[in-house]
DNA sequence: TCTGTGCTTGTTAGCGCTCACAATTTTACG
DNA sequence: CGTAAAATTGTGAGCGCTAACAAGCACAGA
């Protein structure tokens, strides 16, 4: 019934104020939940806002407050499960905290590409950047760059003094290894990921430490490149060793594979070699990809909580932006061991 | 040597103007490549911009031009290869065209979730939205919503009158099917994806059409859910049929699987059943995921050019935003057949 | 020399919002 | 009741930029 202002463009705060019979500032107060507004006024304004379909202009707001409330995400390889989930987690967390995120996906993390991505984001006035950079080279390139805003890494390790958050890969590997040792295996073999990846290195380290702590023999390392094929090839080598090691001291009865995809390849190679899992060789993975539960047999693995990884990275970033902390902090998220059929307990260790 | 203005905050256009001895408007002209600026002035201004490290304030620009140059992306299931690549393609294309993108990832494409995502994006004044919604239900929900800006769908089919762009799934399926028929197979079996997915339906349709056009028998349909496990199960059924159909008219010698992941499962089931690929049964997939080339054997499949899918969707969206077209258009991207070892030509069709 | 045309530059007024402050009303309490 | 304190509301300026217009200048042709 009230007369509407010009329909040709989106209503402004002043339009709302005029219709509600208050000042534009009062409208602003209502919108930002300022305490000193009477309930009656607040209700009236809210009603007019609804009625006009008013929506705050974020550009004007950003100009006046000098805050864009926008964050940038730089990620490499977002087509893989891990990075893709992490980016999704970051975006969700940022959205919950009232920030807009914009993601830039890089094919390769060269310094040039990283610099360009930063320029792009800086041009839009992002207040902070989350960099999902699991490779050592990428983190190094990132650290060398002078950023126009705070930068937080995810899965970037804590070798350099960039603040960041990562999963406790080391602990995850220990959990897996200890679980296998506790299940009655004399030692645990390991198929690692590529050397430049921080995740890969930490998992290898955790595995080795767990073995040493338990006084178990440390078998030679096999290496893959995260792909199922490389796991398959490693699996073939392992199958050969199983036969060779039969009846000897610490036989090959358990394998910790650095990710689930490679584990898939290992499982298949073992199966083709006539070895049963877990009866002959127990196999564990890392990541808990959605398919892992349906592997033959269902895979024991480490679950990574990407949502909380995202939440923590955003929390850390906002701490820096809003000046709650100056030091470069490093948060670590605890992983969770998921035990499935591929590592069922050995009832009676045979032939030892 | 020139005196720098207050360092405590980022330099503004006026700062640049003062140092360069021109008006702020001239600086603005240089920045927006306006033709009527003398070479000398342009050079001087450019140099000062460099020197001060000046960067245009996008919020102020957006406020003055009433253009945010921001686009939204709404996607479901971005942890899968297809959607993840598509989103990356969209983001890259938008960036090339000078737009900022912000992505919202949904777990499930309910109408509520879609509406919330739109509200979020609308709050930041996005000028358009790209929705990556491969499920029929999601497109329907989207069409029912009244959007605050132009919306373009990717892989949303052209059933409803939303403009969009999609891969020619039908053609892809035909290419695969015709390739198999041309290789000497009497007919081609099919493992389809879940029924609610538009991609799945179009692939099934293309397969069926190609068979009918060639006058080939249309075998019963098997169905999976995109996962390797479901492919494995379908593969087991297929293996059973192979034995049953030996020596009969149109035997089971070729299978078109609706995506590469399921094809992986099929390959394994066939292998376990003692059947060789491609000698006994040829297998083809769809998507060309990075692993497909390394499957045992390397998989014949359909490559989807996600980058051009992204580029086209952004092109279409900007056409709508900038008023170059009013009608809802639907673009279709042609797929590419990648022939690999899994469908090697049959030299002499045995036993027929 | 004068006028007209095109090129180059400067001036002014907002875009829609928030901040700091001022003005007004209400409430509290001696 | 009166007055101080608190709560509520309004006013003006300005965030950094672009659009529209105005002004200055050089150069051509009459």
UniProtKB/TrEMBL annotation, chains A, B:
SUPFAM superfamilies: lambda repressor-like DNA-binding domains (SSF47413), Periplasmic binding protein-like I (SSF53822). CDD domains: HTH_LacI, PBP1_LacI. Pfam families: LacI, Peripla_BP_3. The keyword Secreted does not apply. Keywords: DNA-binding, Transcription, Transcription regulation. It comes from the Bacteria. InterPro entries: HTH_LacI (IPR000843), LacI/GalR-like_sensor (IPR046335), Lambda_DNA-bd_dom_sf (IPR010982), Peripla_BP_I (IPR028082). GO terms for molecular function: DNA binding. Residues 11-65 form the HTH lacI-type domain. This is LacI family DNA-binding transcriptional regulator.
């Amino acid at each position: 019934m009230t007369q509407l202002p010009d329909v040709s463009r989106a209503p402004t705060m002043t339009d709302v104020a005029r219709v509600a019979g208050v000042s534009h500032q009062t409208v602003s107060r209502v919108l930002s939940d300022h305490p000193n507004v009477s309930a009656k006024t607040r209700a009236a304004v809210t009603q007019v806002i609804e009625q006009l379909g008013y929506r705050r202009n974020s550009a004007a707001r950003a100009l006046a407050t000098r805050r864009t409330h926008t964050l940038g995400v730089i990620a490499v390889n977002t087509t893989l499960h891990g990075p893709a989930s992490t980016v999704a987690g970051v975006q969700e967390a940022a959205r919950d905290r009232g920030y807009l995120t914009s993601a830039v996906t890089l094919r390769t993390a060269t310094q040039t590409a990283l610099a360009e991505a930063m320029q792009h984001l800086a041009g839009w006035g992002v207040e902070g950047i989350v960099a999902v950079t699991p490779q050592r080279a990428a983190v190094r390139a990132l650290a060398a760059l002078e950023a126009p805003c705070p930068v937080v890494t995810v899965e970037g390790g804590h070798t350099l003094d960039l603040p960041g958050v990562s999963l406790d890969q080391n602990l995850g590997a220990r959990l897996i290894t200890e679980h296998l040792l506790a299940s009655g295996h004399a030692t645990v073999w390991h198929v690692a990921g590529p050397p430049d990846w921080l995740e890969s290195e930490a998992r290898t380290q955790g595995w080795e430490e767990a073995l040493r702590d338990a006084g178990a023999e440390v078998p030679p390392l096999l290496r893959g490149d995260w792909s199922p094929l490389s796991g398959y090839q490693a699996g073939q080598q392992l199958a050969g060793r199983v036969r060779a090691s039969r009846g000897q001291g610490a036989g090959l009865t358990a394998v910790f594979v650095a990710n689930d995809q490679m584990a898939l390849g290992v499982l298949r190679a073992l199966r083709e070699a006539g070895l049963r899992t877990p009866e002959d060789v127990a196999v564990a993975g890392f990541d808990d990809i959605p398919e892992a539960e349906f592997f033959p047999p269902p895979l024991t693995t480490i679950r990574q909580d990407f949502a909380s990884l995202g939440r923590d990275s955003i929390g850390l970033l906002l701490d820096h932006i809003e000046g709650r902390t100056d030091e470069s902090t490093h948060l670590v998220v605890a992983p969770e061991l998921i035990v499935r059929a591929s590592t069922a307990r050995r009832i009676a260790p045979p032939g030892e």
